[in-house]
Amino acid sequence: MKDILGMALLDYYNNAYTEDIIFTTNISEEDEMPLPYLFRDYTEMPNIEQRALQNAKGTVLDIVCGVGNRALYLQNKGLDVLAIDVSKGAIDIAKKRGVIHATQTELLALTERRFDTILLLSNGTGVFGSLKNIAKHLQHLKTLLSSGGQILIDSTDLRYMYDQQEGQDAIWIPADRYYGELSCTLSYKGELSDSFAWLYLDSHLFENAAKASGFTFEIIEQGDHFDYLAKLTIA
Known about the structure:
By secondary structure, this protein is an alpha/beta fold. It has six helices and twelve strands. It has one domain (45-181, 200-234): 3-Layer(aba) Sandwich (Rossmann fold).
């Protein structure tokens, strides 16, 4: 898969910033992904991301770490952090910025480690890809948790993206798939990524899936745009 994200991040890091990434889904128009925001510090993070970092403890796994914003913040707080991402460019930058432990890998390929806190942020449920993959990922995450450990993960209910009949509470949603299952692409400087699946989960469905996999589920922060931060622990 083309590392479109890594290509753009490297340009920004090397002072060759001329344009932003274009993010497209099967339910939305093209949207710009501003590169400066992908290098945000703690003060620029949304409340949900800040709350997750405030609640992180012990040894931490930061999944889809990007250029290491969260890992650097937690390192400075004295925590031991492993940052992982599938983007080679992102990991290269994270290391150059000072992330001590940063590895290019997929979540499901990570084994034989235990963490007190696992972070899955910036729509962390996206890594599940689809509803059918939730249980597989949750069971794998369970193998990575220390006794008493926690998963801090966020998502967004995309109901607001669909048409609603005037004067009615009901909305028109797809009949052939769950409305939070998206097909996405990234484009940058004429290069287009392969299409990839990204999952947005409403809190009720996520709670049911978490409990079915042996977790407790608690919403500890809610955002202004139908987004929320959940805490999962082993029941």
